[in-house]
Design brief:
Strand order of the largest sheet: 1-2-3-6-4-5
Radius of gyration: 14 Å
Number of helices: 3
Distance between the termini: 16 Å
Order of helices and strands: EHEEHEHEE
Structural class: alpha+beta
Number of strands: 6
């Protein structure tokens, strides 16, 4: 049976493990699953601009993947959750820009959902991924 290893992203992940009792990532063999990552900084502050928040969420996914020994190049599945103010148009534009920037020609499967609220009242985006990494 594959070994199971949990990870806390340095900074905000360590705080969430201590305060909320959950890990940011788990590795089971070559599979890495991460918890939803928002566009926060280490003090859980959010940018005012939606685009900046989405980019920071992608940065946090990258930080968390790296902590578990994976990268965006290993991502096979993306779930994104969006609190919508004016529809998906701006969300989609930034999401697709970031996919192309971070994964090049790799096009993972993607499930995108509009939601009424996320775990922090300031959050407008949350991204969760699965990666396969040796």
């Amino acid at each position: 049976m594959a070994e199971i290893e949990f990870f806390a992203t340095p900074g905000y992940g360590e705080k969430q493990l201590r305060d909320m009792h959950y890990s940011q990532a788990v590795r089971i063999g070559d599979r890495v699953e991460i918890s939803g990552q928002g566009g926060w900084d280490d003090e859980f502050e959010f940018p005012e601009a939606l685009e900046d928040e989405i980019v920071r969420a992608f940065d946090n996914v990258e930080r968390t993947l790296r902590t578990a020994g994976a990268t965006w190049a290993d991502v096979v599945h993306v779930n994104s959750y969006h609190v919508l103010e004016n529809g998906f148009e701006e969300h989609n534009r930034v999401m697709v820009e970031q996919f192309r920037l971070r994964m090049g020609d790799r096009a993972p499967i993607w499930t995108e959902s509009g939601v009424t609220a996320l775990g922090n009242p300031k959050m407008r985006i949350e991204i969760r991924v699965t990666a396969i990494s040796q």
